[in-house]
Amino acid sequence: MTSQSQGIQQLLQAEKRAKDKLEEAKKRKGKAIAEIDHYRLQREKEFRNKQTNVMGSQGNLSAKIEEQTTETVRNLTSSYHKNMESMMKKLLSTIYDINPEVHPNFRHTV
């Protein structure tokens, strides 16, 4: 009987140790999850800061490109209006002033 009660006592002690280890493991898991969450939040914050810096740079770059495009369009429009009349005269004179000639390679056969 005593050996039976000793066996029961040993089983109860083993069960208690297992329960303690399980609770300790749960605590460590909870602490690890908290550390992971903290680390994740920290990294997300750093990422948002970097993203803001990059997107801010892209916003500035976009504004510069828009400004350069507007300037280029303005210059092209100005050049078009300035040179349109003379180019139309040259084009029309080339079209209207035709000098018919026989090509040097043409052979007239009778």
Automatic annotation (TrEMBL):
InterPro entries: V-ATPase_G (IPR005124). Residues 1-12 have a biased composition (Polar residues). GO terms for biological process: synaptic vesicle lumen acidification. It holds the Pfam family V-ATPase_G. One of its GO terms (molecular function) is ATP hydrolysis activity. One of its GO terms (cellular component) is vacuolar proton-transporting V-type ATPase, V1 domain. Keywords: Hydrogen ion transport, Ion transport, Transport. Residues 1-29 are annotated as: Disordered. Residues 14-29 have a biased composition (Basic and acidic residues). The keyword Ion transport applies. Belongs to the V-ATPase G subunit family. V-ATPase is a heteromultimeric enzyme made up of two complexes: the ATP-hydrolytic V1 complex and the proton translocation V0 complex. Subunit of the V1 complex of vacuolar(H+)-ATPase (V-ATPase), a multisubunit enzyme composed of a peripheral complex (V1) that hydrolyzes ATP and a membrane integral complex (V0) that translocates protons. V-ATPase is responsible for acidifying and maintaining the pH of intracellular compartments and in some cell types, is targeted to the plasma membrane, where it is responsible for acidifying the extracellular environment. This is V-type proton ATPase subunit G.
